[in-house]
């Protein structure tokens, strides 16, 4: 399964790991389908590390999962923060996943088994490059808004085989 995040800087297509982390994948896909992420900001941007979004308040303090407030972590030895473009749930500690997520700009092994990985960028690396180059203020907030305008969910043609 994959989705395209249509942002103000361009599109990013991400593969979602539905079989490996079904709880996180279902949460993200359901939020996408309900248009929850439409017109939301990427509120945190740290060059060389990651960009974070998924909070409808735009503050980095909001957002809920489809399960209520939070849901449990899902970790797999096969999923690591080993490269640029890894899609993970943001959290406030163990088992506090909601709606916020981040995309890595680089390898970040120190995040393994602390943040649920549920996807990876498969298209739009040039957009990710533009995001990383966007200037930020002292609190790592982009000085020019970067928004998810809408999300397109794509069916996986191999899912039924």
Key words describing this protein structure:
161 residues, globular, disordered C terminus
What is the topology, as strand order, of the major beta sheet? 1-2-7-5-6-4-3-8
Strand/helix succession: EEHEEEEEHE
Q: Which residues form runs of ≥5 with pLDDT under 50?
A: 157-161
> What profile does the largest beta sheet have?
8 strands, antiparallel, barrel
Dominant shape? globular
Task: Give a written overview of the molecule.
- The chain is an alpha+beta fold and 161 residues long.
- Helices cover 13% and strands 29% of the residues.
- The protein contains 2 helices and 8 strands.
- The chain has helices spanning 22-33, 125-133; strands at 2-7, 10-16, 40-46, 50-53, 86-89, 101-104, 117-123, 147-154.
- It has an 8-stranded antiparallel beta barrel.
- Mean pLDDT is 95; it is low at 157-161.
Chart the SSEs and their pairings:
Layout: E1 2-7, E2 10-16, H1 22-33, E3 40-46, E4 50-53, E5 86-89, E6 101-104, E7 117-123, H2 125-133, E8 147-154
Antiparallel strand pairs: 1-2, 1-8, 2-7, 3-4, 3-8, 4-6, 5-6, 5-7
Quick structural overview:
The protein is α+β, with helices and mostly antiparallel strands and 161 residues long.
